[in-house]
Design goal:
CATH architecture of the domain at 47-165: 3-Layer(aba) Sandwich
Oligomer: single chain
Order of helices and strands: EHEEEHEHEHE
Distance between the termini: 6 Å
CATH class of the domain at 47-165: Alpha Beta
Number of strands: 7
Length: about 180
């Protein structure tokens, strides 16, 4: 799925603190609330994407699953993303949410553990996408990406966003993919 950059798009520079290093150590343990706090600059077992890298990846990958895990009742999101609110919550990898996540990711990926999955939420101070990416890594997905800058960085770069509605909660079936 390729997205064209909007006129005036500024991809060459970092956006919304997506490259800021707060000195937070990477961890392979799920963060508990509060979920809004400075995040690490790397994720064990996964890869961190900048806005520019994600935009390039969208142009080159035939199948790429964008997964928005922000909370709320609806918001603006990256065009083409699947919204799975609640995916970044929970306390450990053996909780009921992990098995729901396993089912949802299998639906998206067709069970292909090598499918590229990109997790994001609001911004670089949102742990929900970090947690969701860790969940996917724990499930055995080999191409897990964390888009640290999230919706805020995407918007500031002038890239396409769309309104998402609260219709894709973790326990609801996924709509058919347009990819």
């Amino acid at each position: 799925m390729a997205l064209a950059a909007a006129p005036g798009c500024l991809l060459a520079q970092p956006h919304a603190e997506e490259d800021r290093d707060w000195g937070v150590a990477a961890t392979s343990v799920l963060r508990r609330p509060p979920y809004t706090a400075p995040t690490p600059t790397r994720i064990p077992g996964g890869n961190v994407l900048t806005t520019m890298a994600l935009n390039q990846m969208l142009k080159s990958e035939a199948r790429l699953w964008l997964i928005d895990v922000a909370s709320g009742d609806g918001h603006q999101s990256v065009a083409g993303a699947h919204w799975i609110p609640g995916a970044g919550h929970g306390t450990h990898f053996l909780d009921p949410l992990q098995s729901l996540m396993k089912e949802r990711l299998a639906q998206l990926s067709g069970g292909d553990l090598s499918s590229p999955l990109v997790f994001f939420c609001v911004n670089a101070q949102c742990w929900l996408s970090y947690n969701a990416a860790l969940r996917a890594i724990a499930l055995g997905y080999s191409r897990v990406f964390w888009y640290r800058g999230g919706i805020e960085a995407w918007r500031r770069a002038g890239l396409p966003i769309v309104r998402v509605a609260h219709e894709r909660s973790l326990d609801a079936p996924l709509p058919e993919s347009k990819n």
